[in-house]
Amino acid sequence: MPTVDPTKPNVPPLIAEDFNSIPEFNRPNREWLVRFGVLLLAALVYIPLAGSFGLWDCWETHYGEVARYMHERSDLLSPWWGYKDQIGSEPKTGEWFFSKPILVMYGEMIFMRLIGFGEWAIRLPWAILGTLGVFMTYMGISRVFGRRSGLLAAGVLMTSPLYFFLSRQAITDLPYVGTMTIGLMFFILAYFGPKYSASNRGFIGWALGSIGFFLLLAVPQFIIIGLDLSPDRDFGRYSAWMRFWLTIQKTGWIHTIMYFLATLGLLALIGVPMWKEYKAGTLFTDERKDAWMRRFLLWTAFAFFGLSTLGKGLLGFMLPGALLGLYLLISGEWRALKRLEIGRGVLVMCLVMLPWYLGMFAKHGQAFYNRFLVHDHFNRIGAGVHALDSGTFEHMLKWLSIGMFPWFALVPLLFWGLARLRLKDASGPSRTKLFLYIWGFFAYLLFSLSATTFHHYIFPALPPTAMLIGIMLNEFLDDRTWVPRVLILAGIGILIGIGLTIRSDPQSFRNMFTYKYDREWPENPPIDPDATVGPNTDKTWAESTYYANTPTIIHKLLKAKPLQYKTFITVIMVLATIALILMIFTPKIRKVGTLGLWGSALLLAYWCLNWYMPMLTPSWSVKYVFEDYFSRCEIVPNPPEIEEAYEPLLSKIGLGFIPDAFGSKPKRVCREDIVAWLITWRGETYYTSSEIKPLMKQSQLAPYLETLNKGNTFYALTQANRINGLRTALNRETETLKKKGVPGLTDITSWKVEAVHQESAYFALAKATPIRGPVEEEEVDKPAPESEPEEEPVDIPPPGM
Prior knowledge:
Blueprint: E1 2-3, E2 24-25, H1 31-46, H2 59-73, E3 80-81, E4 95-96, H3 103-115, H4 119-145, H5 147-158, H6 161-166, H7 173-192, H8 200-228, H9 240-250, H10 252-280, H11 286-312, H12 315-331, H13 342-364, H14 366-383, H15 393-403, H16 412-420, H17 428-449, H18 462-477, H19 483-504, H20 507-510, H21 545-548, H22 552-559, H23 565-582, H24 587-620, H25 623-632, H26 640-646, H27 649-652, H28 657-661, E5 673-677, H29 683-687, E6 693-695, H30 701-709, E7 714-718, H31 723-739, E8 748-757, E9 764-772
Parallel strand pairs: 5-6, 5-7
Antiparallel strand pairs: 1-2, 3-4, 7-9, 8-9
Helix pairs in contact: 1-4, 2-3, 3-4, 4-5, 4-7, 5-18, 7-11, 7-12, 8-10, 8-11, 8-13, 10-13, 11-12, 11-13, 12-17, 16-18, 17-18, 19-23, 23-24, 30-31
């Protein structure tokens, strides 16, 4: 815990005029071991089994397919998504993907290159980022408030459902909030942290590490722009000046030179002052080392804000900027502006985030601006995009409470802490609390007022709330007054209320990280290996494609009776309630209750990630539909360049056992077509590498048969209740095309359409086989109605979630 001398000025360390007034940091015993333990425990919660079950539609597979396509094509600038074929008069669906920035795709491409194509490459980078977010929470809070506060804050964050679910989901929320949270932890360490002391060698290592981290983030982007941005048209019709400007704008190597020059300028702005202090003999004094270490912390924070902006957009730097502005307004510490390294920090941030954005603007112009900024920023916040008419403040309060169960029961302690907060107390811990309260309240207010209200939009308010709960819980453990005990009693009621809501609606957790909230709970989840997978088949879960493609440990967990949904949630409620009751008593018993509450939250985290998510996966992932398809079809050999693109780097250097352990797969393309029959749900593009044929309307069936299929067997991803409609439509269109004399169709008397995969409550795989020759009686379809209505595709998520 930092040691404060009450006789010295009480100001945040960054703006202390007297170095001696900054509190000392007494490093606890074996601190390295505690830090390693926090990092290891978070990793053991988030990483095991992360890629052992299929990607969930529609977000994970959407971004995953964009990353896969860019990886295969080695186009590292322009995201692209869609189907390859245009069928009939419908427009081609393949298009540039402007809805989200590049960080989520870059993270996945890096791991595709390292360990190969598969679920692990998609999910592993975000499980690691979630782990780092927990670790940096401990680092920031423990240095300002002490080890116990840091452990409690990190423990609350690590076991909050919304945080650990999004650490297992390859969507843009953790790349945005996770990197922003880490950046704000670096800011807290720089602004509010006690003295930094290091040996001369350690100080140099700190400086080189910070600069190296920045260069690692920025320089690869400079190279990408140089390689992938080039003029794509003739500018002859423009004036000489405009041709000159467009050539500069669209020539990647010119961008690269400018970025390298800016980087050299930044390094000079850092290196020259350090050199001058070194020559003057002051650089290695305790005071100057502390000042420079705080600067490097601030620059690292700005680098993470740049990453956050690459994670989801402008809020990556605008939200931290707004938080800092509000903090300075409330605290009155405007003199801090001189020491916040805004000039060099903004340059660091821009060199991390701008190369990709400027490259996209240079290549795609107004189209990128309209989609990314207008539609997916301004309209989402102001006008509403895919808006849910579910309320504002109370709506987000509900999802924050579920997203922090069981810890949300301690939220009343935050009001106790707020009442005791004194603005005149300008010490580092007091000011850090103020900053965290501002962060939590402003994020909650901003996203509650947003016109687009997906349930997980409250996520930016969760990290500061978790940190404040940890800090106030630490203070409560030694408190002997009656007010916080009464608040704990109120928390018991809150806990039971939230727990009963979760117990009564098994969709509560799932709704926090999916899109289709009205999808019903599956009637046949894979919890009994001897039960049938659906009502229309005799296949059991033990015989299913799902069981064949998931590890045995998941099968054992799924069938364990104590882990069944209502039983387990009831146990967690009871354990957490007992823990809260114990926290009412003496400080010693209170600590036992706190440990019990954390233990129940940890059990919930493991259960949610390794029972709840795998249990729902057959209904939320089309992976197993396509594994069945690939097991039935004839795989076409890949061209050499495709084989090269999909060979993991670790395999190339003789470590192929690692990609094999992660289930790396090559690109698989079948000789037999597969079509998407009146359904668009994103996973079909990822799992077929965009090879699937989109039949979004019945009017596309005839053009498909005439130009692509030509009377061959094919498969169809659809809904189970649409298989009969496919059979009827096939027979009708074939009769029409036979009259036109279309080759390959003239001798077909009917189509045999059968369901071959029925493990999902929502998706089915059908096999369509042409029958040539006499028609057997059972194969004859009933005549279709004279005016059969046009079926519309279902389950279509909005593009660019």
